[in-house]
Amino acid sequence: MTHVLVTGGAGFIGCNFVRHLVRETDVRVTVLDKLTYASSEASLADLPADRVRLVVGDIVDEGLVDGLVATADVVVHFAAESHNDNSLTGPRIFVQTNIVGTFTLLEAVRRHDVRFHHVSTDEVYGDLELDDPDRFTEHTAYNPSSPYSASKAASDHLVRAWVRSFKVRATISNCSNNYGPWQHVEKFIPRQITELIEGRAPRVYGAGANVRDWIHADDHSSAVWRIITAGRIGETYLIGADGEQSNLEVVRHLNVLFDRDPDDFVQVADRAGHDLRYAINSTRLRSELGWRPRHENFHDGLARTVTWYREHEDWWRPVKAATEATYAQKGH
Ligand code: NAD
Ligand code: TDX
């Protein structure tokens, strides 16, 4: 049985990926996770102990990383500081985890000649105009806007350099905005859903015209596993499900799902440097590797996500008040 080391497996996308592996494959998984504020051990608690093991630790810890990588057949690297707003108030940890952490992993996979997959974001390409007919492709120039996206861009460049200079067996994926179960309530969709469950109006940054290209976390997981099993070493694959929606469209639809006036939302302070639009052209992944998303209808996926948050109040409620208190300090 293949042994997969998943960094950041106690976070949102990482835990959905681990669940995907348990469901769809017979691999054994070791999760390496620092258990930051963004993580939750509960996200993995119901998984079988003979398939999934959690090691609590930091990806910048060279000795720990070396020992774990030495026993793995493949490393799938999700661990990161992931929230743009936090990167504006405290960028240092983004440099440390996203850049130094990726460097530490790359050196370990180089030493032990272990296959590596790097999970990245479409934000490395900057943003698009609302009416730009072109979407991001694997050839789009890097142009990150925030400390978060700059740190992810830097980590992508390290991976590319380690492939070229040291022949590390790595692939990279850059995915669009994920939604689905187990996402921290600081992020846009779970924040609005949990505000609505608590009887408060959704909170939109600025005018709400910003567009994000939504993909269900399950589809991100299936794409990453397809790239690991069938992708070409050294290649980058963009992952997206043609899910472009403005923030206003999302908020209006959520209001409808809660039987409210679609236009009953609060406009709050905008994000500094707020990217206007992301949009992914995933032709390479679809034509070369035959991947297709399963959750093609965003509104259906959103409705299922609302149901999930209604049914998992015990999971998100302990961190909700503190998250809102932090937002209040920032005027969001
Ligand atoms: P998340 O914040 O929910 O989870 C990140 C996980 O990494 C947490 O469990 C955290 O404890 C862990 N972690 C953080 N620092 C660590 C460290 N130093 N050592 C070990 N573990 C550490 O993030 P997410 O939304 O699940 O994103 C996962 C990955 O996917 C990230 O690399 C992110 O850049 C990328 N990505 C996210 C999205 C999105 O929409 N959320 C889209 C594209 C790409
Ligand atoms: O309360 C809110 N109101 C609001 O209008 C919040 C929290 C966000 N927003 C807006 C900002 C963005 O335009 O919603 C959009 C989405 O915001 P986030 O959930 O913070 O995501 P984003 O900044 O787009 O980044 C996400 O997708 C790419 C992830 O957090 C990144 O990790 C990933 O790389």
Examine the coordinates and then state which fold CATH places here, giving the name of the CATH topology of one domain: Rossmann fold
The distinct bound ligands, ions and cofactors come out as: nicotinamide-adenine-dinucleotide, thymidine-5'-diphospho-beta-D-xylose
Mean pLDDT equals 98
What's the number of helices? 11
The fraction of residues in strands falls at 15-25%
- Largest sheet data: 7 strands, parallel
- Please give the oligomerization state of what you see: single chain
- Count every beta strand, where a strand is a DSSP E run of 2 or more residues: 13
Q: What is the name of the CATH superfamily of one domain?
A: NAD(P)-binding Rossmann-like Domain
Compute the separation of the termini in Å: 47 Å
Coarse structural class: alpha/beta
EC number: 4.2.1.46
InterPro entries: dTDP_Gluc_deHydtase, NAD(P)-bd_dom, NAD(P)-bd_dom_sf
Family: Belongs to the NAD(P)-dependent epimerase/dehydratase family. dTDP-glucose dehydratase subfamily.
Catalytic activity: dTDP-alpha-D-glucose = dTDP-4-dehydro-6-deoxy-alpha-D-glucose + H2O
